[in-house]
Design a protein that fits this description.
Order of helices and strands: HEEEHEHEH
Mean pLDDT: 93
Radius of gyration: 15 Å
Oligomer: single chain
Low-confidence stretches: none
Length: 102
């Protein structure tokens, strides 16, 4: 691995994700009863597990409020979950302040 790239990667302390179109293919599927259904990629889950094992804080910041997101966050042991966030930058700034990150 390029030493410069490795040095940059070692500085990463937190990774925050949106959900729709990032952890999913962007599709929004609704059952007849109005229940929202999401399909997540297992490869993303493996990557998040690897981040957790490396000691990197993982977070989801999403504008939507959905039970499937809570379940996925719990299954993957995502440390921070922000739902209903119209201003995702504010949530990210809150995380940085909480963990003393710049």
């Amino acid at each position: 691995m390029n030493l410069n790239l490795k040095a940059k990667a070692e500085k990463i302390k937190l990774v925050a994700f949106d959900v729709d179109g990032v952890m999913t293919d962007g599709s929004l599927t609704f059952a007849e009863n109005g229940m929202e259904i999401k399909t997540y990629n297992a490869k993303d889950g493996m990557g998040i597990n690897m981040l957790n094992k490396a000691g990197i804080i993982t977070a989801i910041i999403t504008a939507r409020v959905n039970e499937t997101v809570r379940i996925r966050a719990k299954v993957l042991d995502i440390k921070e979950l922000f739902e209903g966030q119209k201003n995702k930058i504010e949530a990210l700034e809150e995380l940085c302040k909480k963990y003393n990150l710049t």
